[in-house]
Design a protein that fits this description.
binds adenosine-5'-diphosphate; five-stranded parallel beta sheet; 14 helices; two-stranded antiparallel sheet; 2 domains; single chain; Helicase, Ruva Protein, domain 3; about 15% strand; binds magnesium ion
Length: about 325
């Protein structure tokens, strides 16, 4: 087994997705990193920056199915998992599967739903199965959640507890398009090449079938990380627990996530081995949603990304 096929698929998937999504190169890369390492991701971005279109397009390009759940204050766990309904004809109960039974799930505005519904989704993310009336149902092998959140200051939000946020490998920040990208979007919207028609037209080709993802994920394990780099990575995560401005640092899951993300980023760059820069590049999206600053430092205007950069500057890069 080697990593050639993996690197080829990652390149093709980026190319096909880029036919629909204008710009957003880092975003597409990070979404593919979550998918090909078997993890989940938080997506942050104002309305209309193509969060939904991104996940729908990736599902199409990776031959997988897609579902979207709009989280609302009255959403119940059974609305996402499904329920057993009594079937009169067959005189027995049968399961009506909920939208969670899919490969790529977009959980929109997850922090608008109450804690018990949030934890029904987060439990499924962790265990890759759901229990309905004491029966356990396995979710598809490619089950991947992309969750969006409303900014905390929005009315009626139930902030995700730290322990729950820790279950997301990385946070993907989608900025509004640059001027030239928005010009391209405007031109496309006026032709038959609007993003949606492109997706529906067959121009965008699936590069694999859903069942191929499992094997490609295994190839990720072949990407080499030498011991000095593993120690370097561990020191970065541990530094978040002692940095003077940090109230809550990152836990051991962050170490695991950063290892997987750095390997995937190396493969995305066509290499079979990890470099220090891979670790530095992935430190931001992997650590950002896991850190809480001390209020006094936040008041002074310090931000989490700045603190992560400070830590990266403080720790010596192994030769
Ligand atoms: N970078 C982009 N590339 C292509 N289309 C885009 C881009 N940004 C916005 N759009 C357009 O804006 C629409 C809104 O996207 P949508 O996925 O619904 O946004 P969100 O889920 O972030 O609110 C899309 O359907 C698409 O036509
Ligand atoms: Mg949307």
């Amino acid at each position: 087994m080697n990593t050639e096929r993996l690197k080829e698929v990652l390149t093709q998937a980026r190319h096909e997705t880029g036919k629909v999504i204008i710009g957003q190169h880092d975003v597409i890369e990070r979404a593919l990193i979550a998918i090909f390492t078997g993890n989940h991701a938080l997506i942050e971005g104002v309305p209309g920056v193509a969060k939904t279109l991104l996940v729908r397009t990736l599902a199409h390009v990776l031959g997988s199915d897609f579902a979207r759940i709009q989280f609302t204050p009255d959403l119940m766990p059974a609305d996402i998992t499904g329920t057993n309904v009594f079937n009169l004809q067959r005189n027995e109960f049968s399961l009506i599967k909920g939208p969670i039974f899919t490969s790529f799930l977009l959980a929109d505005e997850i922090n608008r739903a109450p804690a018990k519904t949030q934890s029904a989704l987060l439990q499924a993310m962790q265990e890759r199965c759901v229990t309905i009336d004491r029966d356990t149902h396995t979710l598809p092998a490619n089950f991947t959640v992309f969750a969006t959140q409303n900014p905390i200051e929005y009315e009626g939000t139930y902030p995700l507890p730290e322990a729950q946020k820790d279950r997301f490998m990385l946070k993907i920040v989608m900025q509004s398009p640059a001027r030239d990208e928005e010009l391209t979007l405007a031109q496309r919207t006026m032709t038959k090449e609007s993003p949606e028609t492109l997706l529906a037209s067959g121009v965008v080709k699936p590069v694999i079938q859903a069942e191929d993802i499992t094997l490609l994920r295994e190839q990720m394990g072949l990407i080499v990380m030498r011991d000095e780099l593993t120690a370097y990575l561990v020191d970065i995560v541990r530094a978040t627990r002692t940095h003077e401005s940090i109230l809550v640092g990152a836990g051991p899951r962050a170490t695991q996530s950063l290892i997987m993300a750095a390997r995937a980023f190396a493969a995305m760059s066509g290499r079979d081995f990890v470099t220090p820069d891979d670790i530095k590049t992935m430190a931001q999206p992997v650590l950002e949603h896991r850190l809480i600053l001390r209020p006094e430092f936040e008041i002074e205007g310090l931000s989490v990304p700045e603190v992560i950069q400070q830590i990266l500057q403080q720790i010596a890069v192994p030769r």
